[in-house]
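sry for the spam today, last one i promise. struct tokens for design, 423 residues
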């Protein structure tokens, strides 16, 4: 499972689009997204309520505490919303120690209300935790003792008996409505492969639930079966994180292939770099470097999987090597070309792309004093490893090559010993 945050706009869009299918009832949610490219006139044509309602506007940037930070404006007309957005669009703010520009806003009707409720559903290893409080809103943390939580094991339906402890103290006139709402939201949560969904607060409008503020996360590994349900979903970068040109290039490659190509620069001046096959293996390699006390020297997080073809691996490897060899300073560096034991990926074929890139970048690898450590297993791995050994002799670069008899963590230790010896 990969938990990916989505914008509040998309959380509300998904809940609105699927609530009736799940529950048989409408959930009246109105919201609009505003970015630098938004044409307000076109937006009004699609969402005519914008010009006839009092509005709320706030950043939609994956950070919380917007109200307490003075970033929520209430009871505005459309002209005032436009002024609010213009004054803040592209401006850098600091939230939770992270700085970044505000690029996206959500606009909604202003909903006067007296009651504020809280619901939170979190997917866990063996099921889901469901929390509820009748004291929701910006002070939920100060009223955490009033939050009730139940745990629902995987495969168990949420029925009236199980949900009863959450709504036990509600007034009788609203208890059935909120009980049904919790059950429906949980069913929707499971159906759409949410991993996290929080409404803080939601209220009642004309006796019907209305989410005012929402946060959501999806399991992006379930995209293959949910692409129609999710529609044009966006998984934004965390607030304050901006892709470099090289990261954007790999992201573009990733979007054009059925394989998976991931690359994140952690420290451009790091002396340990990775080019790892397999999502699980890539985490093990990165964690091992950190566990051995060298997280500050880890240059990147990288992962390729899903049997990319030779040309895709070539383009990918070029980028990793260019970053790993930038600004040589005479000190030794290490590149870990690792992976677990592949199930179906042809190791020799993917290594062909890496070998071609290393031949192209021979002078850069030598200038950066790069030492390369290879560990891999799987189909055709003997042939792939033999080619890697031959490459070291051909271009005169130190390449240590191991098969599945070596441990994944072992070559991380060797890479650390290499750079430590020259420190």
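last one done:
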């Amino acid at each position: 499972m990969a938990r990916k945050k989505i914008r509040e706009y998309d959380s509300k869009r998904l809940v609105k689009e699927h609530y009736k299918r799940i529950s048989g009832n409408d959930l009246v949610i109105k919201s609009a997204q505003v970015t630098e490219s938004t044409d307000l006139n076109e937006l009004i044509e699609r969402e005519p309520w914008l010009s006839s309602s009092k509005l709320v506007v706030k950043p939609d940037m994956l950070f919380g505490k917007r109200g307490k930070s003075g970033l929520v404006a209430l009871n505005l007309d459309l002209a005032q919303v436009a002024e609010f957005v213009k004054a803040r669009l592209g401006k850098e703010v600091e939230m939770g120690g992270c700085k970044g520009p505000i690029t996206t806003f959500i606009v909604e009707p202003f909903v006067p209300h007296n009651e504020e409720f809280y619901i939170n559903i979190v997917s866990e290893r063996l099921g889901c935790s469901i929390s509820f409080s009748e004291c929701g809103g910006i002070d939920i943390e100060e009223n955490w003792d009033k939050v009730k939580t139940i745990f629902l094991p995987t495969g168990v339906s949420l029925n009236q008996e199980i949900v009863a402890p959450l709504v036990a103290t509600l007034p009788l006139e609203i208890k059935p409505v909120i009980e049904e709402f919790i059950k429906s939201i949980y069913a929707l949560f499971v159906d759409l492969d949410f991993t996290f969904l929080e409404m803080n607060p939601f209220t009642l409008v004309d006796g019907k639930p209305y989410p005012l503020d929402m946060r959501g996360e999806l399991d992006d590994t379930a995209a293959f079966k949910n692409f129609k349900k999710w529609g044009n979903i966006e998984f934004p970068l965390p607030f304050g994180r901006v892709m470099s040109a090289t990261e954007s290039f790999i992201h573009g490659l990733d979007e054009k292939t059925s394989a998976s190509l991931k690359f994140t620069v952690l420290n451009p001046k790091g002396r340990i770099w990775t080019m790892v096959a397999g999502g699980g293996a890539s985490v093990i390699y990165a964690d091992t470097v950190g566990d051995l006390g060298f997280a500050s020297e880890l240059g990147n997080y990288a992962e390729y999987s899903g049997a990319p073809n030779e040309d895709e691996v070539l383009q990918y490897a070029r980028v990793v090597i260019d970053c790993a060899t930038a600004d040589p300073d005479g000190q030794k560096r290490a590149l870990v070309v690792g992976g677990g034991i592949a199930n179906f990926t042809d190791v020799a074929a993917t290594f062909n792309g890496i070998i071609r890139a290393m031949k192209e970048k021979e002078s850069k690898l030598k200038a950066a004093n790069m030492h390369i450590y290879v560990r891999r297993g799987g189909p055709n791995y003997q042939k792939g490893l033999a080619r890697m050994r031959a490459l070291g002799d051909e271009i005169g670069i130190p390449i240590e090559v191991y098969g599945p008899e070596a441990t994944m963590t072992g070559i991380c230790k060797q890479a650390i010993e290499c750079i430590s010896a020259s420190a």
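The mean pLDDT is 92. ok im logging off now
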